From TrEMBL:
InterPro entries: Kinase-like_dom_sf, Leu-rich_rpt, LRR_dom_sf, PRK1-6/SRF4-like, Prot_kinase_dom, Ser-Thr/Tyr_kinase_cat_dom. This is Protein kinase domain-containing protein. It comes from Escallonia herrerae. GO terms for cellular component: membrane. Residues 328-352 are annotated as: Disordered. Residues 1-29 form the signal peptide. It comes from the Eukaryota. The keyword Nucleotide-binding does not apply. PROSITE patterns: PROTEIN_KINASE_DOM. Belongs to the protein kinase superfamily. The keyword Transmembrane helix applies. Pfam families: LRR_1, PK_Tyr_Ser-Thr. It is a single-pass membrane protein.
């Protein structure tokens, strides 16, 4: 985070420096030096002598005063690079009336005092960066008397009290005002001029304070705003419609007590749920649940489960009817029986009617068990439906009922199913049994894991979900990579997963990832399998060369894994998002960021938490690896074995977060 901020500060700093120097008021540097030494230094440093500020001393050349930048009246900066320059020795510079202070940059400087009101007297001061210190007390109202201040960053200090109204005196010059992470209270003050537009203001960050009251209307007149952060305050009321009319690139209204209908932010994917999460349950409208209780996300989901629960029961009952009818007809299928007996690990039961083929770990299942289970739909896809089913003995299994025509006949299906039934790996969900009814119904029976899908963990906002820091995401990514590598190279006959995506990854409370749905493409008729390709395209994880499912191979899996890794790193959904038609191509997002030199900003904020060096923590390497997997030319993509190796070599240094008591995103709700 600190890195990000410094980076963007640096760019805005350059912009000001090169473009917006206007006339400087005439004032001698000697009075500025007096203010710095007499008032500002002692107040900023507090009770203890500060190492950086000790350089502010008339016995030290002006150029060596830490954290200060000077400029001559003719706008040329005082360059302090040339050691032979007389400026280094010329002490009379302090009295030079053409030298002025224009910037104080002391982020993370160990300042432990208060903000001196004399800061407002530095008439030429344009930027004031004092973030990540221990400054406490109020923001002095005199700050607003400053005649040049345009960039202010007091982020991550201990400031309290309310924001003085005078701050808006700076309105016309102000480019950024960052107060993130303090203890500021009260409501946001109204500017004295009713029509203030603060036309240069681009960054307004009031996040993580204790501001209360409403979002004032005047903010909606700040048309130049690009980033607006009110996250984690105690603001309430409705979100003004005008906020949606600003051309914001970043917005954070999460964790307040906003209510009412959200204004329409255009394409529903412009801002995700995370921007609005943690507010009053009364806050509604896209991307949150719909208003008036209709077609809402959460209420809809509940209704869905209820309806599906009923369908689940119906479907299982109809299977049972099929089974009974078969029984009455009593048509043995000799040819299939012979084939079944070839299996080594599997056992068949079922009177030669419906067939239940059992694999290792599924030996306890009986046909009656499976058919009498009461089911509840957990997932519906184009090729089948998954039920969570309770067995009579109290156990729970996951049943996947394959869509009709999924595979032509038993003889073509069984060899592949048997192969799938033999796969056992920590990161792959085991297939325990397979049932085929007389009418062609096919059920795949897996262990039921009460875990969340990675998709859900990454994109659904719900109280009690664990924070996904980099250590945890790395573990998840490595688990997925190992599972895929095993399918590709760890088996006698390699298996292509064919459907790698975050919805097909379950993550347990120790962040162990388990892949499901592998190899299913092989037991589907081409038309159904090709639906998967279409779906993968829509979800942005289809390798460019993949046109037909029967052409899928380990390299197309690697591509899909690359997209999945980007999804993990960026926290963004790939492909078509929401109801809008926006299509998110994650590799392009990264390419653009790299070109614009904002690479660090592509990472999900949660990923960067606690990361000191993205290089040493393997974050940058993971991004490169993901991009390599997404190479448009299949032959240059790494193999899954190489991917596993690289992820193992570039681990996050601090992995203690993996083992700390599950840190969750909110106090309420059940811990994960
Ligand atoms: C400046 O430095 C000298 C010696 O380096 C020290 O004696 C003096 O107290 C310092 N003055 C201030 C104002 O810090
Ligand atoms: C010191 O700086 C002043 C003003 O910039 C200049 O007039 C004077 O000649 C300089 N003295 C030396 C010794 O460089
Ligand atoms: C601000 O904090 C200081 C101590 O750091 C305390 O004395 C003061 O009362 C606080 N002011 C407000 C308005 O909370
Ligand atoms: C401020 O805007 C209102 C309408 O929005 C207008 O009537 C008024 O004259 C404006 N005042 C100034 C000082 O521009
Ligand atoms: C919004 O702000 C809160 C508090 O500062 C932070 O925890 C959260 O990650 C931010 N969300 C987004 C989407 O930036
Ligand atoms: C949030 O706002 C609602 C009114 O919309 C109010 O009843 C509730 O007390 C507020 N909650 C908090 C924690 O301020």
């Amino acid at each position: 985070m600190a890195l990000l901020k410094l980076n963007s500060l640096y760019t805005t700093f350059l912009v000001i420096f090169t473009t917006s120097f206007t006339t400087l008021p005439l004032s001698s540097s000697s009075s500025e030096v007096e203010l710095l030494l007499g008032k500002i230094k002692p107040t900023l440093q507090g009770k203890t002598e500060n190492l950086l500020l000790s350089s502010w001393n008339t016995t030290v050349p002006l150029c060596q005063w830490q954290g200060l930048k000077w400029v001559f009246s003719n706008n040329t900066p005082l360059t302090c690079t040339d050691l032979s320059s007389p400026q280094w020795a010329n002490l009379s510079l302090y009295e030079d009336p053409s030298v002025h202070l224009y910037s104080i940059q002391l982020p993370s400087a160990g300042l432990a005092g208060t903000l001196p009101r004399e800061l407002g007297e530095l008439s030429t001061l344009r930027s004031l960066y004092l973030s990540v210190n221990s400054l406490f007390g109020n923001i002095p109202l005199e700050l607003g008397y400053s005649s040049s201040l345009s960039e202010v960053d007091f982020g991550n200090n201990l400031l309290n009290g309310s924001l003085p109204t005078s701050i808006w005196n700076l309105c016309d010059r102000l480019i950024s005002l960052r107060l993130h992470g303090n203890f500021l209270t009260g409501s946001l003050p109204e500017p004295a001029l009713p029509n203030a537009t603060c036309k240069n203001l681009q960054f307004l960050d009031f996040g993580h304070n204790a501001f209360s009251g409403n979002i004032p209307e005047f903010i909606t007149r700040f048309h130049g705003l690009k980033e607006l952060d009110f996250g984690s305050n105690m603001l309430s009321g409705s979100v003004p419609i005008g906020i949606a009319e600003l051309s914001l690139e970043k917005l954070n209204l999460s964790h307040n007590n906003f209510s009412g209908v959200l204004p329409n932010f255009g394409g529903s994917s412009k801002f995700g749920v995370e921007v609005f999460e943690g507010n009053s349950p009364g806050l509604c409208g896209p991307p949150l649940r719909g208003c008036n209780g209709k077609s809402g996300l959460s209420s809809g989901a509940i209704a869905g489960i209820v309806i599906c629960l009923m369908t689940g029961v119906v479907v299982l009952a109809s299977l049972l009817i099929g089974y009974m009818q078969g029984k009455r007809r009593k048509n043995g299928d000799e040819e299939d029986e012979e084939e079944l007996e070839e299996g080594e690990e599997d056992v068949e039961t079922g009177d030669g009617e419906g067939k239940l083929v059992l694999f290792q770990g599924g030996e306890h299942l009986t046909l009656e068990d499976v058919l009498n289970a009461t089911g509840q739909v957990t997932e519906k896809t184009s090729y089948g439906t998954v039920y969570k089913a309770k067995l009579a003995d109290g156990g729970t299994i996951a049943l996947r009922l394959l869509r009709e025509g999924s595979c032509k006949d038993r003889s073509s299906c069984l060899p592949m199913i048997r192969q799938l039934g033999r796969v056992r790996h920590e990161n792959l969900i085991p297939l325990r049994a397979f049932y085929q009814g007389k009418r062609g119904e096919k059920l795949l029976i897996y262990d039921y894991l009460p875990n969340r899908s990675l998709y859900d963990l990454l994109h659904e906002s719900r109280a009690g979900k664990p924070v996904l820091n980099w250590a945890r995401r790395h573990k998840i990514a490595l688990g997925i990579a190992r599972g895929l590598a095993y399918l590709h190279t760890g088996l006698e006959t390699p298996i292509t997963h064919g459907n790698v995506r975050s919805r097909n990854v379950l993550v347990d409370e120790f962040f162990v990832a388990r892949l499901t749905e592998f190899g299913l493409d092989k037991i589907m008729i081409p038309a159904v399998a090709d639906d998967l390709v279409a779906l993968a395209k829509l979800d942005g994880c289809k390798a460019p060369e993949l046109q037909k499912m029967k052409k899928c191979n380990s390299r197309t899996d690697v591509y899909a894994f690359g997209i999945l890794l980007l999804e993990i790193l960026l926290g963004k959904k790939p492909g078509k998002n929401g109801r809008s038609n926006d299509y998110v191509d994650l590799p392009s997002v990264v390419k653009v960021a790299v070109l614009e030199e904002t690479t660090m900003e592509v990472f999900d904020v949660e990923v960067l938490k606690g990361i000191r060096s993205p290089m040493e923590d393997g974050l940058v390497q993971a991004l490169k690896l993901a991009m390599g997997c997404c190479a448009p030319v299949a032959s240059i993509r790494p193999t899954m074995d190489e991917v596993v190796k690289q992820l193992e070599e570039n681990r996050p240094r601090n992995r203690s977060a993996l083992y700390s008591p599950a840190e969750t995103r909110s106090e309420i709700g059940t811990p994960f």
